[in-house]
Amino acid sequence: MKVLGISGSPRKEGTSGTYKLVKTVVENTGCEVEIVSLRGKQISGCIACLGCVKDNICKVKDDLEPLREKIVEADAFVIGGPNYFNNLNALTHALFERWFQFRHQAGSTLWGKLAVAVGVGGTQGNAPADEIEKMCMYNLIETVAKVQGQGAASCYSCGFGETCEVGIPVNLHGPGVKLTDDIIPDVEKQTDVMAAAADAGKLLGRRLGDGHDRTKVASTVKEKVMAMFGEAV
Questions:
Q1: Rounded alpha-carbon distances, angstroms, from residue 232 to 7, 131, 187, 226, 227
Q2: pLDDT tens-digit readout, 95-121
Q3: Which domains are assigned to the chain?
Q4: pLDDT averaged over the chain?
Q5: Which of 48, 92, 152, 155 could form a disulfide with 167 if both were Cys (CB 3.0 to 4.6 A apart)?
Q6: DSSP sequence for 38-102
């Protein structure tokens, strides 16, 4: 079984809480794994050209094109994104928009696969994790676990974090805050979060190795999606 980890953070691997958690999850699956960072990649949102309708292949030429085969071949995904304004960042969302290419003519390329959603934010990561879960549902992918952690908001490194009245450091720690290493959030210091990431990876590995039935999974997720649509009417 192949597990594809995707970090949607624009930060370098060593400073990205998203990347660290994605890496921890995939390394605990016990499966064949690969991690892809979207950092530095140019991926546009869907342009609604419908060029993918006949063959389920997106015709937009950018950095998603060489990733397509990896997405198709994977049996499961570990996808992480940072919290931007209490939502999933644009780069990771653009990745999901372009998965529209897999949906035409009852396209089942992604149906019934499994995923773990990872979210990291300056205060909390549930918003991006929830959005990732929703986007997976639209593709009939079951999210078996969500991992959420607190990362270092850009305010900690912008140069004005100690004085900016609307910045996260002042709002979390109060006026006169001094930015020392011990107060700058790092997911690797959050033992409960790192343990949750490891547990999520182990669960994903067990699910893949326990007679994974993609047809059954897709049917179950489809029922949840239709129920969600019904609640919105």
A1: 30, 16, 35, 10, 9
A2: 999 999 999 988 899 999 999 999 999
A3: 2-151+187-213 (3.40.50.360), 154-185 (no CATH)
A4: 95
A5: 155
A6: -TT---PPP----TTTTTS-----STTGGGHHHHHH-SEEEEEEEBSSSSB-HHHHHHHHGGGGG
**pLDDT band at residue 230 using 50, 70 and 90 as cut-offs:** confident
Residue count (the chain) = 233
Contact 29, 77 (CB under 8 A): no
H or E segment to which residue 144 belongs: strand 142-150
Is it the case that residue 197 has pLDDT exceeding 60?
Answer: yes
Angstrom distance (rounded) from CA 70 to CA 105 = 21
**Spatial contact of 119 and 129, defined as CB atoms under 8 Å apart:** yes
Q: Which of 147, 160, 165, 148 is nearest to 201 (CA)?
A: 147
- Which residues, listed in sequence order, are joined to residue 76 by a DSSP beta bridge? 3, 114
List CB contacts of 57: < 8 A, sequence separation 6 or more.
68, 101
Residue with tokens 């890496």: 23
Q: Assess whether pLDDT exceeds 70 at residue 123.
A: yes
Nearest one of 42, 31, 25 to 3, comparing CA atoms: 31
Q: Is the pTM of this model over 0.90?
A: yes
